[in-house]
TrEMBL record:
Belongs to the binding-protein-dependent transport system permease family. It comes from the Bacteria. Keywords: Cell membrane, Membrane, Transmembrane, Transmembrane helix, Transport. This is Aliphatic sulfonates transport permease protein SsuC. GO terms for biological process: transmembrane transport. Residues 92-276 form the ABC transmembrane type-1 domain. GO terms for cellular component: plasma membrane. InterPro entries: MetI-like (IPR000515), MetI-like_sf (IPR035906). It is found in: Cell membrane. The lineage of its organism: Bacteria, Pseudomonadati, Pseudomonadota, Betaproteobacteria, Burkholderiales.
Amino acid sequence: MSNAYAGPVPVRPEIEHDLPPLPAQAAERPLPWHERLWQQAGLRKLVILALLAGIWELAARYTDNDLLLPGAVQTAQAFVQGMASGELPARAGQSLRVLVQGYAAGVALAFVLTTLAVSTRFGRDLLSTLTAMFNPLPAIALLPLALLWFGLGEGSLVFVLIHSVLWALALNMYAGFLGVSETLRMAGRNYGLGGLRYVLQILVPAALPAILAGLRIGWAFAWRTLIAAELVFGASSGKGGLGWYIFQNRNELYTDRVFAGLAAVVIIGLLVENLGFDTLERLTVRRWGMQR
């Protein structure tokens, strides 16, 4: 069968176009000063806090009732007076001392449970059963039992703090351990790691983002549980930290001091989140490329 067209193949002429010069890259041009400032996360958060304080002050002036809603300026004055007298720092120090004890004990127990869960089938069943039973139970609901078992004192507070930290951290830690890739697991086994060494050298570094998330959640649960528990202890024994400070001033109708105590709770929470956990994440998982 012969080709229908046996002539030469036509060749298209080459055409050259002169392209315009590329524009200067945007990254090479310095940003305006206001855009550079706005890129600072701390400044953006301060702006948000200032807006909230402004709305608060306007609402207080509209209400015009200091007993019901003191303004942001009045609360700031009460906060400064409490700091100058030393009462607020003393109450905050008392709360943080108890919090560290309960938080550390909860972290240690969570590590033991999750290590047992990834090592044995019985530990896995134990962790699953305990978390299903106790994780939905509010920590403050255990306070009456804590009062019966440990009496009025720090022991009861530490007990409810352990409950508030333990289950959230254990669930996050165990989920992080389960998410470790099989390649890393095989590498650990090839090096002869087992038991606690396997957990510390393979599972914990690989599951660090999930562990830090669990630590952050456990801290939030523990902090608000402590303040709520101190309110109850304040009604019972007249002792406590910031929760008792809030309760006492509420009974004496010093609403500005009540708001000053709440502001101290919020400020401590912001400092722990931004100076504590954010710094820890930046120095570890973000630096190592494990988290964006």
